[in-house]
From TrEMBL:
<protein>
    <recommendedName>
        <fullName>EF-hand domain-containing protein</fullName>
    </recommendedName>
</protein>
<feature type="signal peptide">
    <location>
        <begin position="1"/>
        <end position="28"/>
    </location>
</feature>
<feature type="domain" description="EF-hand">
    <location>
        <begin position="107"/>
        <end position="142"/>
    </location>
</feature>
<dbReference type="GO" id="GO:0005509">
    <property type="term" value="F:calcium ion binding"/>
</dbReference>
<dbReference type="InterPro" id="IPR011992">
    <property type="entry name" value="EF-hand-dom_pair"/>
</dbReference>
<dbReference type="InterPro" id="IPR002048">
    <property type="entry name" value="EF_hand_dom"/>
</dbReference>
<feature type="domain" description="EF-hand">
    <location>
        <begin position="68"/>
        <end position="103"/>
    </location>
</feature>
<dbReference type="InterPro" id="IPR018247">
    <property type="entry name" value="EF_Hand_1_Ca_BS"/>
</dbReference>
<keyword id="KW-0732">Signal</keyword>
<feature type="domain" description="EF-hand">
    <location>
        <begin position="143"/>
        <end position="169"/>
    </location>
</feature>
<dbReference type="Pfam" id="PF13405">
    <property type="entry name" value="EF-hand_6"/>
</dbReference>
<dbReference type="Pfam" id="PF13499">
    <property type="entry name" value="EF-hand_7"/>
</dbReference>
<keyword id="KW-0479">Metal-binding</keyword>
<feature type="compositionally biased region" description="Basic and acidic residues">
    <location>
        <begin position="163"/>
        <end position="172"/>
    </location>
</feature>
<keyword id="KW-0677">Repeat</keyword>
<dbReference type="Pfam" id="PF13202">
    <property type="entry name" value="EF-hand_5"/>
</dbReference>
<feature type="compositionally biased region" description="Low complexity">
    <location>
        <begin position="177"/>
        <end position="189"/>
    </location>
</feature>
Amino acid sequence: MQGKSQSQILKHFLAASAAFLVAGGAFAQTAATAPAPAPGQGGAMHHHMEHGGGMWMKSVDTDGDGMISKAEADALFNRIDTNHDGKLDKNEMAAYRKTMMEQRRAEMQKEFEAKFKAADKNGDGALTKDEVKAGMPRLAQRFDQLDANHDGKLTLDEIKAGMQKMHEERMQRMPRGPAAPSAPSSSGG
């Protein structure tokens, strides 16, 4: 009986550990690869990471009590364990992270488009500088940079293209890994 109890404890520990590993991997992956949130969006990823993964917690805490129960951890484990072998391999973890990132990107896109639509007071599908200042003030800082055709209006396409370009430029400036060791000096001896 004690052996069975220990194996159950181990199984639950592994399930909880896997849940936290997935969450940590998703946060790191998202922070490293997700395009920067559009200005005016409130920095959702920064907010998400600052508050201990609150969004992730809410997605796992299905009963909304602010805690993750064993049943909720098991349910997460079972969602990730797509081949139902009771183990999580790196392919299952990667697939889960990818799915979660795609869902979050879609949510962020939907939220941004709703803010854009709300700011578009005349409903013409483009934002003037005044509409941006009133409805999306953080975006106003980059208005001229994003207005690719210099017509005094921003379309969703201009904003998306401009933000993607800024993200790519930022990624190019980031270090790519450990610095190469310097060659030993050849001093005669």
